[in-house]
């Protein structure tokens, strides 16, 4: 059966032109590359929107996207992947605890800024906050964690900080005893307010203008680069470096590498990179020029 036959016989017919329109729109808006092998995923995720809008074909949905800008966030939310977990890739949090925190405690700098650049439903950002809380004296240090994501729906979940009891075992027992509370008559738990207070959730598209001026001491951007092409990846890595302090850390996912674009970084551990000293001291103006 040909592509045309197969996809025209689905519940909502989708032509080659429809798929090309959708993947080109996804790339232009998010940087996500959708090769032909992702057709079934695209169909499955967007069929819900076609059904909700009471449309009959993907051609109608493409036309709707072209003429209704309010549908774009729904389109992006439907396509983006949000797999995450508390303390996922545990070695990153061990490095934060055992290597990075002692550097801060031994130094003169009292301002600490960390960015979770694809925070999804919040587990990564809260894992960072739990690692820092009690390790860093908040009376002596000014600590803030920025957590951003493209998907507006997952951010709402992240802000609430309420999760299924099924995932509780993924949080170390010493942290869960101090930083979570079970919700009576439910199979859920919530993150305690003192941990929530360290995290600030914002919607952000990595391909668009970044309003923050930095500098950051650590940037987590894990399992994001796998969806980007080489040019997009290089552009974002350059902007990350522009926002990092000298000696700041960029932490990426287990299946990712920045070796091809890492002239400004040194490798210090599995998927952990440290920013080399820049030739010109950091300033917001310098950051804006370098990020462009």
TrEMBL record:
<dbReference type="Pfam" id="PF03705">
    <property type="entry name" value="CheR_N"/>
</dbReference>
<keyword id="KW-0949">S-adenosyl-L-methionine</keyword>
<feature type="binding site">
    <location>
        <begin position="205"/>
        <end position="206"/>
    </location>
    <ligand>
        <name>S-adenosyl-L-methionine</name>
    </ligand>
</feature>
<dbReference type="Pfam" id="PF01739">
    <property type="entry name" value="CheR"/>
</dbReference>
<protein>
    <recommendedName>
        <fullName>Chemotaxis protein methyltransferase</fullName>
        <ecNumber>2.1.1.80</ecNumber>
    </recommendedName>
</protein>
<dbReference type="InterPro" id="IPR050903">
    <property type="entry name" value="Bact_Chemotaxis_MeTrfase"/>
</dbReference>
<feature type="binding site">
    <location>
        <position position="149"/>
    </location>
    <ligand>
        <name>S-adenosyl-L-methionine</name>
    </ligand>
</feature>
<dbReference type="InterPro" id="IPR026024">
    <property type="entry name" value="Chemotaxis_MeTrfase_CheR"/>
</dbReference>
<keyword id="KW-0808">Transferase</keyword>
<feature type="binding site">
    <location>
        <begin position="222"/>
        <end position="223"/>
    </location>
    <ligand>
        <name>S-adenosyl-L-methionine</name>
    </ligand>
</feature>
<feature type="binding site">
    <location>
        <position position="124"/>
    </location>
    <ligand>
        <name>S-adenosyl-L-methionine</name>
    </ligand>
</feature>
<dbReference type="GO" id="GO:0008983">
    <property type="term" value="F:protein-glutamate O-methyltransferase activity"/>
</dbReference>
<dbReference type="InterPro" id="IPR036804">
    <property type="entry name" value="CheR_N_sf"/>
</dbReference>
<dbReference type="InterPro" id="IPR022641">
    <property type="entry name" value="CheR_N"/>
</dbReference>
<feature type="binding site">
    <location>
        <position position="84"/>
    </location>
    <ligand>
        <name>S-adenosyl-L-methionine</name>
    </ligand>
</feature>
<dbReference type="InterPro" id="IPR029063">
    <property type="entry name" value="SAM-dependent_MTases_sf"/>
</dbReference>
<feature type="binding site">
    <location>
        <position position="88"/>
    </location>
    <ligand>
        <name>S-adenosyl-L-methionine</name>
    </ligand>
</feature>
<dbReference type="GO" id="GO:0032259">
    <property type="term" value="P:methylation"/>
</dbReference>
<dbReference type="InterPro" id="IPR022642">
    <property type="entry name" value="CheR_C"/>
</dbReference>
<keyword id="KW-0489">Methyltransferase</keyword>
<dbReference type="InterPro" id="IPR000780">
    <property type="entry name" value="CheR_MeTrfase"/>
</dbReference>
<comment type="function">
    <text>Methylation of the membrane-bound methyl-accepting chemotaxis proteins (MCP) to form gamma-glutamyl methyl ester residues in MCP.</text>
</comment>
<feature type="binding site">
    <location>
        <position position="82"/>
    </location>
    <ligand>
        <name>S-adenosyl-L-methionine</name>
    </ligand>
</feature>
<feature type="domain" description="CheR-type methyltransferase">
    <location>
        <begin position="7"/>
        <end position="278"/>
    </location>
</feature>
């Amino acid at each position: 059966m040909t592509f045309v036959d197969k996809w025209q016989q689905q519940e909502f017919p989708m032509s080659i032109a429809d798929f090309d329109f959708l993947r080109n729109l996804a790339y232009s808006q998010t940087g996500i590359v959708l090769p032909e092998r992702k057709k079934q995923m695209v169909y499955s995720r967007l069929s819900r929107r076609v059904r909700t809008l009471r449309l009959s074909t993907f051609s109608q949905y493409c036309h709707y996207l072209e003429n209704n800008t309010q549908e774009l966030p729904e389109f992006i939310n439907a396509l983006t992947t949000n797999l995450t977990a508390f303390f996922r890739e545990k070695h990153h949090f061990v490095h934060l605890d055992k290597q990075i925190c002692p550097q801060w405690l031994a130094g003169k700098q009292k301002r600490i800024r960390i960015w979770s650049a694809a925070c999804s439903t919040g587990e990564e950002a809260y894992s960072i906050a739990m690692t820092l809380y009690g390790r860093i004296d908040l009376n002596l240090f000014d600590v803030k964690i920025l957590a951003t994501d493209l998907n507006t729906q997952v951010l709402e979940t992240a802000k609430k900080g309420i999760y299924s009891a099924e995932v509780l075992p993924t949080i170390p027992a010493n942290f869960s005893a101090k930083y979570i509370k079970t919700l009576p008559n439910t199979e859920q738990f919530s993150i305690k307010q003192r941990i929530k207070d360290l995290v600030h959730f914002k919607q952000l598209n990595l391909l668009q203008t970044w309003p923050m001026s930095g500098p950051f001491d650590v940037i987590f951007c894990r399992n994001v680069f796998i969806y980007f092409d080489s040019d997009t990846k290089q552009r974002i890595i350059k902007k990350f470096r522009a926002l990092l302090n000298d000696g700041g850390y960029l932490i990426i996912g287990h299946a990712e590498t920045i070796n091809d674009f890492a002239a400004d970084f040194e490798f210090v551990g599995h998927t952990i990179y440290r920013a080399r000293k820049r030739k010109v001291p950091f300033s917001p103006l310098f950051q804006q020029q370098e990020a462009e």
